[in-house]
Amino acid sequence: MTEDEFRELLDRHGGDLERWPRATLREARRLLAQSVAAQAMLDELVAIDLALAETDGEATPPADLADRIFERAFGAGTASSDALTPDAVPFPGLNRPV
Asked: Is the dihedral of CA 12, 43, 60, 54 positive or negative?
């Protein structure tokens, strides 16, 4: 299994390897034993999953968040004047280290 294949499987099946198809587990575990990059990919996804689980569905993004992101990314002038700043935290509970 390549690192690209591993990333695709992570995207498709998530960070809990026990939920992966049995046919892929052996190769995935072999890659994890050999590849620091694959370990980092798994760690990143598990951290994201844990952070999302902590919100318990309580975090609600600001109504104009999509417009502000678009404005920041493309400078299209479509967002409100309070565009995201580097210190803006749209989800206050998710800004702590994992």
From this structure: positive
* 43-82 residue pLDDT tens: 999 888 888 777 666 667 778 888 888 888 887 554 444 5
> Quick one: 46 exposed, middle or buried, by C-beta within 10 A (0-12, 13-18, 19+)?
middle
pLDDT value at position 57? 61
- Report the distance separating Cα 90 and Cα 12, nearest Å: 26
Distance of CA 72 to the CA centre of its chain: 20
C-alpha–C-alpha distance, residues 7 and 5, integer Å: 5
Amino acid at the residue 54: E
pLDDT above 70 (res 37)? yes
Q: How far apart are CA 31 and CA 48, in angstroms?
A: 21
Q: How far apart are CA 3 and CA 13, in angstroms?
A: 15
